[in-house]
Amino acid sequence: MGGLVQINPIWLYGPFQASAVSSPAQPDWYLGWLEGALRIFPPWEIRAFGHAIPNVFFPAVLLPGVTFGLLYGWPFLEARLTGDHEEHHLLDRARDHPVRTGIGAMALAFYTLLLLAGSNDIVAKIFLVPVSGVTWAFRILVVALPPLVGFVVYWWMAALLRSGKDSALHVPLRDFRPRKARVPR
Predict the structure, then answer these.
(1) What DSSP assignment string belongs to 14-76?
(2) What angle in degrees, to the nearest 10, is found between the helix axes of 98-117 and 32-40?
(3) Cβ atoms of 116 and 141 closer than 8 Å
(4) Tens digit of pLDDT for each residue in 7-51?
(5) Residue 132 to residue 177: CA distance in whole angstroms
């Protein structure tokens, strides 16, 4: 194909002009969260003891290292924290472990926001706003929204567990209120 197929014939289009490109390159779906972390991370650079840790170290090396370390270590960490060392052959329902479900929802929200931040220039183009404004919005959302999502999901699953209902949509309002602690007499 390299000898027979014509690719970017300069005599038809003229020389390359970087300013004519409509949008910078977009990441593939499996690297979108990493690209988003690189795009929204502030320009921090640490200098100590005559060495500099470059800006890209934190979102491109540290974040994936922590991500995959937690993924690999999660079963062992959860067993140690909960004291549950039994053998499990069936999937648990989300309501049976509201803390686990809340942490999972928080992680899902975090990485979804990073994935969307990987296309901040496209988001800015769609909504006709500056890219810097979208970047700052994602910087704030990636810190503020995941804990909120995790708390709401935990609250909902705990209410569902207390109610004993089969459907998450049929939880009575009285079960959404936290129970008062009993004082021993």
Answers:
(1) -S--GGG-SS-----GGGHHHHHHHHHS----EEETTEEE-TTHIIIIIHHHHHHHHHHHHHH
(2) 70
(3) no
(4) 666 777 776 665 555 556 677 888 999 999 999 999 888 898 888
(5) 41
Inter-residue contact 176 to 155 (CB < 8 Å): yes
Locus of tokens 């009993």: 182
User: Which amino acid does the sequence have at 5?
Assistant: V
Residues 114-124 pLDDT 10s: 999 998 888 88
Helices (H), 83-129: 98-117, 120-127
**Residue the block writes with tokens 């194909």:** 1
pLDDT at 182 exceeding the cut of 60 = no
Q: Which H helix or E strand runs over 158?
A: helix 131-163
| Helix axes of 131-163 and 32-40: crossing angle, nearest 10 degrees | 120
Torsion over CA: 119, 121, 126, 130 (sign): positive
DSSP state of 77: H
